[in-house]
Amino acid sequence: MRTPRRFIGMEDFPAVSETTIGAAMSTLPAFPFTADHPLHLSPLLGEARAGRVPIRVQLGHGDPAWLVTSYDDARFVLSSPAFGRDPERAGIPAGRVAGVTPMDPASQTLLTVDPPDHTRLRRFVYRTFTPRRVEQLRAGTQRIADRLIDAMIEAGPPADLVQGFGLDLPIEVICDLLGVPATDRARFVAWLDALLSTSGLTMEEMQTSITEMNAYLADLAARRVHEPTGDLTGALVRERIEGDRLTDDEVNNLLRALLSAGHETTASQIPNFVFLLLRSGDYARLVADPGLVPTAVEELLRYVPLITQGSMTRFVLEEVEVGGVLLRRGEQVLVELAAANRDTETFPDGETLDIGRRNNPHIAFGHGLHRCVGAALARMELQVALSTLTTRLPGLRLTDPPDQVPWDTERFVRRAKKLLVTW
User: Fold this and answer.
1) pTM: predicted TM-score of the whole model, two decimal places
2) How many structural domains does the chain have?
3) Which residues of the chain have pLDDT under 50?
4) 8-37 burial, b for 16+ CB within 10 Å, e for fewer?
5) C-beta neighbour count of 230 within 10 angstroms
6) Out of 120, 245, 246, 374, which could bridge 240 as a Cys pair, Cβ 3.0 to 4.6 Å?
7) What are 263-298's pLDDT values in tens digits?
8) Which helix (H) or strand (E) holds 117?
9) What is the CATH number of the domain that holds 139?
10) Does residue 7 fall inside a structural domain?
11) Does residue 4 lie within any of the structural domains?
């Protein structure tokens, strides 16, 4: 006999009968949970994970959702065909979508569509981001990193590692890949900041940025029709013209998603990683042992929370059990990757940062169909960033106490506003 559906709160995860659903809905804990530091996790996530079952939470835009926090359940949800990103497949009418999901900065892209469209779109992009092809970009990325460090050294300390290095390195790499002229790159930083703001801008301001960026990318793609190039934009345009396998909108949306994903993860995690390495004393360990950088990058990816509001919403497409709890078609599910990555049943002493950790099957880039297509690029950039900093600036240190570092709390991702350093 199937276990009855349970609605679970944060106190002691009590089971609640169907007749008390209305009351339970009005007392659900609000998500995302708050923590005592932007790079820390709320203790409530650890409590939820300890229960080994999905819990019911209330999202900021008004609707309830299931929150998954354990590693095994997270991998299951992310890879099971019982879940999808398209709400209409879950029986939610198109007119209802705006009411069940917050504004998605990457709408109608690889992140938001299901197969077969997802399979078709991903195939075009993945060829650019295979580990082998990304490795060919390492030397160019190293040249960019060295040039940025040269400029920091020439200007002298203190330097802002966010503006002077963290933002510039990934935007230069991804814009080179897409063929965006160097003179236009600062505009993309501003547009992407607007797309990833959660409360710092009005909806009108966000929409203006989206409209301006879409118009620019449409023009960039249109120019490739008459002036073919070997960059990724040119390759996507060729797919549209020669094979008629992509629409104009799909080309535009893919370019926007690649710019966002190819820039923001690395731009935010470079200063996040350096902050934790300096605070913990592990920066000196990397200076002494440069060969440890790849392992340190994997551990920092596992340990450092990036997204402020869980993963993007998934919808239950068919009745399914997760952790012994029955989820029904049309319900929303969030996977808390950061909590799953600290699950002590998979990662011994998972709440501790250990840059020497060897067995590290983290899911910082997701899992399954929607696993980040740019994972290899982000890994390479982060390795280059840490290797360059620890080699060129072995005496790097914060200019202010860690508790005085200002953090941007109005973004979809976690990042310091400034990270002032000296050497």
Assistant:
1) 0.86
2) 1
3) 1-25, 98-106
4) bbbeebeebeeeeeeebeeebbebbbebee
5) 8
6) 246
7) 778 999 999 999 999 999 999 999 999 999 999 999
8) helix 117-126
9) 1.10.630.10
10) no
11) no
